[in-house]
Specification:
Blueprint: E1 2-11, E2 14-20, E3 25-29, H1 36-48, E4 67-76, E5 79-88, E6 94-97, E7 100-101, E8 114-117, H2 123-126, H3 129-141, H4 145-171, H5 176-215, E9 222-227, H6 235-241, H7 243-249, E10 260-265, E11 268-269, H8 270-273, H9 276-298, E12 303-307, H10 309-312, H11 315-327, E13 333-337, H12 340-348, E14 354-358
Parallel strand pairs: 3-13, 3-14, 8-12, 12-13
Antiparallel strand pairs: 1-2, 1-4, 4-5, 5-6, 6-7, 9-10, 10-11
Helix pairs in contact: 4-5, 5-9
Bound molecules: adenosine-5'-triphosphate (ATP).
Subcellular location: Cytoplasm
Domain RecF/RecN/SMC N-terminal: 3-345
Family: Belongs to the RecF family.
C-alpha cells in the first residue's frame, strides 16, 4: 500500500499544499513550527479519520478558516483509492472513499493500516490508563472489525448507564429492571473485549519483548501486564456488587473501561524505575511491535510515520530502526526532522530511493 499523493486545504498551518510522494521514503525537513508534524497528522487523518495529536476536531481547521479538506491518493492491491476527510465548522466530519461517504467512520478503520512513532508517545508511560487502553484499542481495531464493533457498543451502553445513574440520583428514584438491561449488554460486549484483549496480548507480548531486545543495548527484561476487573469475576456480578458505589458516584466504577496495561522493567513500573533511554526504547519497541502485529494480521505493510525521531534517539539508534524496517520489506516511510543533513545521512545508509521535502 502506497500513499501516492496528498493535498490539504486549510489544514492547521497550511492554506493549500500538495505533495507527490516517493514509494519508499519521504522526509519533511525544516525549522520548528513550519508544519512537519502537521503533514504527518494529515496522513494519520486519512487512516483514522482523526488527528493523532489534537482530539478537538475543529481545532485542526486553520485559524479563521471555515473548513479543512485532506485528500489522499493511494495504491492498494493494484487499485487506486481516493480518500477525502473534510470538516466544516459546526458540522459532522465527512470521510469519503472513492467519492462515497462512509455511513460509519469505523468502517474505514483498518483499511489503510498505519503506525506512528512520535515524541507524544511518552504519554503512554506518563499518563493514566486511558492512553494505554487507547493504544490497545488502536492496534486491535485495525485488524479486527468485531472488536471495534463491540467496543463502540460497550462505550455507547456505558454512556447510557451512566446517564441513568445520574437520572436516578437527580430524581431520587431507582429502577433495577432498567439498569439490568444495560448490565446485560455491558457484560456481553465487555466479555468479548476482555477476551480479545487477552488474546491480543498473548501474541503481542513476545513480539514486543523481541523488539525491545533488538533495539536496547542492555539485557534487562521488560514486560506488559494486563489488568482487568474481569480477571476476578464476570461483569454482571461485578456490577451487582458495585451497585451502591455506582449509585453514589453516579457512574459505572467497574468494567473493561477501567482496564490497564502495566509497563514493567525488571518487574517494576518503567515510569518510576526506567532510565530515559530505557523508556524511549520501550516506546519504540511497543510501536514496532504494533507494526509487526498489524502487518501479520492484515497482510499489508502499514505506513510508518516517524515524527521527530531524533528527539527520542541518537543517530545510531535511528539508523538501526530504519534498517530494521527496511530489511523486513516495509511499505512506505514518512519522517520529520529539523535537520536535513542528519536525516539524509541516515537515510542514505539504507540504500533506498527517497525524497526530501524542505519546508
Ligand atoms: N488550527 C491551526 N491553525 C493555524 N495554525 C495552526 C493550527 N494548529 C497548529 N497550527 C500551527 O502549526 C505549527 C506547528 O506545526 P508542527 O507541529 O507541524 O511543526 P513542526 O514543523 O513539526 O515543528 P517542530 O520541529 O517544533 O516539531 C505551529 O506554528 C502552530 O501554531
Amino acid at each position: 500500500m502506497i500513499l501516492k499523493s496528498l493535498s490539504m486545504i486549510n489544514y492547521k498551518n497550511f492554506d493549500e499544499r500538495s505533495f507527490v510522494f516517493n514509494n519508499k521514503i519521504n522526509c519533511f525537513v525544516g525549522n520548528n513550527g513550519v508544519g512537519k508534524t502537521n503533514i504527518l497528522d494529515a496522513i494519520y487523518h486519512l487512516s483514522f479519520g482523526k488527528s493523532y495529536f489534537n482530539p478537538v476536531a475543529s481545532q485542526n481547521i486553520k485559524h479563521e478558516a471555515a473548513f479543512f479538506v485532506i485528500n489522499g491518493t493511494y495504491e492498494k492491491e493494484q487499485q487506486t483509492e481516493k480518500i477525502v476527510v473534510s470538516l466544516k465548522r459546526g458540522q459532522k466530519k465527512i470521510i469519503k472513499r472513492n467519492g462515497k461517504i462512509y455511513d460509519r467512520y469505523s468502517d474505514h478503520i483498518g483499511f489503510l493500516p498505519l503506525v506512528i512513532i512520535s515524541p507524544a508517545d511518552s504519554d503512554l508511560i506518563i499518563e493514566g490508563s486511558a492512553t494505554r487502553r487507547k493504544f490497545m484499542d488502536g492496534v486491535i481495531s485495525q485488524s479486527d472489525k468485531h472488536y471495534l464493533d463491540a467496543l463502540l457498543k460497550y462505550t455507547k451502553t456505558l454512556t447510557q448507564r451512566n446517564s441513568l445513574l445520574k437520572y436516578f440520583a437527580l430524581n431520587r428514584t431507582f429502577n433495577q429492571d432498567t439498569l439490568e438491561v444495560y448490565n446485560l449488554q455491558l457484560e456481553q460486549y465487555g466479555q468479548i473485549i476482555y477476551e480479545k484483549r487477552q488474546a491480543f496480548l498473548e501474541t503481542f507480548i513476545p513480539i514486543f519483548k523481541a523488539r525491545y531486545q533488538a533495539i536496547s543495548s542492555g539485557n534487562e527484561t521488560v514486560n506488559l501486564l494486563y489488568e482487568s476487573h474481569l480477571s476476578t469475576n464476570n461483569l454482571n456480578n461485578l456490577l451487582t456488587n458495585a451497585l451502591q458505589k455506582d449509585r453514589a458516584l453516579q457512574h459505572t466504577s467497574v468494567g473493561i473501561h477501567k482496564d490497564d496495561l502495566v509497563f514493567n522493567i525488571e518487574d517494576h513500573p518503567i515510569k518510576k524505575f526506567g532510565s530515559q533511554g530505557q523508556q524511549k526504547s520501550f516506546l519504540i519497541a511497543l510501536k514496532l511491535a504494533q507494526f509487526d502485529f498489524i502487518k501479520t494480521k492484515s497482510q499489508v505493510n502499514p505506513i510508518l510515520l516517524l515524527d521527530d525521531i531524533f528527539d527520542k534517539l541518537d543517530a545510531q539508534r535511528v539508523t538501526q530502526i530504519i534498517k530494521l524496517v527496511n530489511d523486513e520489506n516495509f511499505g512506505q516511510l514518512f519522517i520529520s526532522d529539523t535537520h536535513a543533513d542528519r536525516t539524509e545521512a541516515v537515510i542514505q545508509q539504507v540504500h533506498q530511493t527517497y525524497q526530501m521535502f524542505k519546508l
